[in-house]
């Protein structure tokens, strides 16, 4: 079945808002075996939106629109879609109850425009929004083709869209596509290994894949492998996926950090420290708090993370830790001193320091140099790792060094 995504919003066309929704939808659809064939972006204009829906209806089986479901006059997606489908919009009492409950909790009364967010197709299916006000809708349209066409409307607010995509849309679509069997995906995550290396090690499996299929997605120092099986039932598909996963893990066991779409090196490190009942403190220079920020985004991190310091110069580090003459030390010695002082100051079992020495290239746009990662573990010698930083923009190098620091911390603790 061909899927098409239409992102609605003039702010997307003008560049004020980056469209992350289309990418997220396409990724999630792949987990149930649906490929996205086309993507469109259209502004809040009835005529152009109508043209976009018409074009999609001529070439796609599943059409997902995101955005334009709000309470203002330029939120026109439901109205235009209903007109195109020759259906009408009605208020859904279930979504109205959600809206009223939200405003009651706020201690205010909603104005009439807010109720527009509870509109849905009269002859469609309401997709309730449990994390926002605007409900989504799904409509099954009969066509001359062998399969019916499905038009799905989702909010444009990214966290609302993501929640509804996972909890409302995917179950809805699974019922449609799994009548003749099921499609299930399993995600594996690997850290500290490059894409080319993984591709080489898994070359035979990738070249000879049939069912399950193997797909690979790369981020800096992180690889996600998606295994997708088609079978008569969910249990059989899961068994097929796990068999392939076990074979892959035998090859890449040293870098494996867990299953799941959302598994990252951050979640792995937090879970590892929780399991070992160890506390952590961090001092950062070049990464400017990126390591701490990534860890503190994990729920429950406060049980293992005591605090840290962002210091971009020697003077600040000396002042905060009561040190002198750091400038005379080598970068490795500085990393050792800082991590020991950090663990002492915050009274933690483990300390992590992340610093770097960099230079600008002649264009003034790219940096290169060496990162220095140090890990202190109580009653053990401090471990220090120099990490070469290739010539890249500063944000890229920070992300690389952040991931390398977490991987080095993981290996040291394990």
UniProtKB/TrEMBL annotation:
Coiled-coil spans in chain: none
Pfam families (UniProt xref): CinA, CinA_KH, MoCF_biosynth
Domain of life from the UniProt record: Bacteria
InterPro entries named among the record's database cross-references: CinA, CinA-like_C, CinA_C, CinA_KH, Competence-induced_CinA, MoaB/Mog-like_dom_sf, MoaB/Mog_dom
Gene3D superfamilies per the UniProt record, alphabetical: CinA-like (3.90.950.20), MoaB/Mog-like domain (3.40.980.10)
SUPFAM superfamilies found in the cross-reference section: CinA-like, Molybdenum cofactor biosynthesis proteins
Residues of the MoaB/Mog domain: 4-175
Similarity comment: family membership: Belongs to the CinA family.
HAMAP family recorded: CinA_B
Name listed for the protein in its UniProt record: Putative competence-damage inducible protein
The encoding gene: cinA
């Amino acid at each position: 079945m061909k899927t098409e995504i239409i992102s609605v919003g003039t702010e997307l066309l003008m560049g004020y808002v980056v469209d992350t929704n289309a990418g997220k939808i396409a990724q999630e659809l792949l987990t149930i075996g649906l490929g996205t064939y086309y993507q469109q972006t259209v502004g809040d204009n009835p005529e152009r939106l109508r043209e976009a829906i018409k074009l999609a209806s001529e070439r796609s089986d599943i059409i997902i629109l995101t955005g334009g479901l709000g309470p203002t006059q330029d939120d026109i997606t439901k109205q235009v879609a209903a007109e195109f489908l020759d259906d009408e919009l009605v208020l859904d009492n279930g979504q109205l109850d959600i809206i009223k409950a939200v405003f009651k909790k706020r201690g205010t009364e909603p104005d009439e425009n807010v109720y527009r967010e509870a509109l849905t197709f009269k002859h469609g299916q309401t997709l309730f929004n449990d994390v926002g006000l605007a409900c989504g809708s799904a409509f099954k349209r009969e066509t001359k083709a062998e399969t019916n066409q499905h038009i799905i409307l989702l909010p444009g607010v990214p966290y609302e869209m993501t929640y509804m995509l996972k909890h409302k849309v995917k179950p809805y679509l699974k019922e449609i596509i799994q009548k003749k069997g099921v499609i299930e995906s399993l995600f594996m995550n690997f850290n500290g290994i490059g894409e080319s290396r993984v591709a080489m090690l898994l070359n035979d499996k990738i070249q000879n894949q049939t069912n399950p299929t193997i797909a690979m997605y790369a981020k800096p120092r992180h690889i996600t492998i998606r295994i997708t099986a088609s079978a008569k039932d969910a249990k059989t598909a899961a068994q097929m996926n796990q068999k392939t996963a076990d074979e892959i893990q035998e090859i890449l066991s040293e870098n494996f950090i867990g299953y799941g779409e959302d598994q990252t090196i951050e979640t792995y490190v937090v879970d590892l420290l929780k399991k070992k009942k160890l506390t952590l403190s961090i001092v950062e220079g070049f990464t400017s708090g990126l390591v701490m920020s990534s860890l503190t985004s994990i729920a429950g991190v406060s049980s293992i993370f005591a605090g840290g310091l962002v210091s971009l110069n020697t003077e600040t580090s000396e002042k905060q830790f009561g040190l002198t003459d750091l400038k005379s030390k080598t970068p490795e010695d500085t990393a050792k001193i800082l991590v020991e002082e950090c663990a002492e100051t915050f009274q933690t079992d483990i300390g992590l320091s992340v610093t770097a020495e960099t230079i600008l290239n002649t264009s003034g746009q790219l940096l290169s140099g060496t990162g220095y990662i140090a890990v202190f573990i109580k009653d053990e010698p401090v471990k220090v790792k120099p990490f070469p930083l290739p010539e890249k923009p500063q944000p890229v190098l920070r992300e690389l060094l952040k991931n390398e620091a977490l991987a080095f911390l993981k290996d040291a603790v394990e």
